[in-house]
Amino acid sequence: MSAVAPAVPAVSGRFRLSFPRSLRSEWIKLSTLRSTWWSIAITAALTIGIAVLIAFAFTSTGAVRQGVNGIMAVVSPIQFTALLAGILGAIAVTGEYSTGMIRSTLTADPLRGRVLVAKAAVLAVFLFLASLVMFVIAAVIVSTILGAHGEALEWGAPDKVLLPLLSAAATMAVCALIGVSFGFMLRSGAGAIAATVGLLFVLPIMSNFFAFAGESWKWVLDAANYLPLSAAQNAILPSDTAPMSAGVAFLTLGAWVAAGLLGSWVVLRSRDA
């Protein structure tokens, strides 16, 4: 007779996996990557540097005295820094696929939807808070520069300073989530970055080519208003002449996030790691 191996008693673990622990795990992975802090440093340098240059340009041309809102100097760099936010979101996901860490992640937490939501939440909150700090610093410096010419930012008017800063920070978080979505759907660093750059930067430029194509191609320009960065511009600095209201712009940004995360969830559930 063959010996029967003795049964190993099951040991009840002291800790159980929960969503807060998944969040903590994702934060550890994000914060221990040097690429994260390099990306934030470059984003901060561009945000503050470009804002300062635009502020000096405003003072030399008298643009603020001619009715130009000084907060534009602070939020204008987002056309470039949003790309960095999207790329950071993409590499935060594809880096796990390239190293094979995604297998460990999904083994530790088999609930793939929870993994997706935890990673998306950590990146969104991190980018929002980091971007808000950058924009506030840039706003203080810009206000000081403009204030020397009697045109400081109107901090007492929330719709002229605070709301644009919050909207710009939210846009950075949205772009990061778009990068996360492409990362999960494509699982390739090069592919996810290319798709993110294409959506955030290339498509808006290409749509401008149709401005001279006549009335029959006007639908392209109308559709381009619903691209993420185009909608973000209307959300950050709404105006009566804008192609969409701030409410519609925020709904558009939310729709991009929802569609991207839904697609990521479907792909994550249907494919092996």
TrEMBL record:
<feature type="transmembrane region" description="Helical">
    <location>
        <begin position="70"/>
        <end position="95"/>
    </location>
</feature>
<dbReference type="Pfam" id="PF12730">
    <property type="entry name" value="ABC2_membrane_4"/>
</dbReference>
<keyword id="KW-0472">Membrane</keyword>
<keyword id="KW-0812">Transmembrane</keyword>
<feature type="transmembrane region" description="Helical">
    <location>
        <begin position="161"/>
        <end position="186"/>
    </location>
</feature>
<keyword id="KW-1133">Transmembrane helix</keyword>
<feature type="transmembrane region" description="Helical">
    <location>
        <begin position="247"/>
        <end position="268"/>
    </location>
</feature>
<feature type="transmembrane region" description="Helical">
    <location>
        <begin position="116"/>
        <end position="141"/>
    </location>
</feature>
<feature type="transmembrane region" description="Helical">
    <location>
        <begin position="37"/>
        <end position="58"/>
    </location>
</feature>
<feature type="transmembrane region" description="Helical">
    <location>
        <begin position="193"/>
        <end position="213"/>
    </location>
</feature>
<protein>
    <submittedName>
        <fullName>ABC-2 family transporter protein</fullName>
    </submittedName>
</protein>
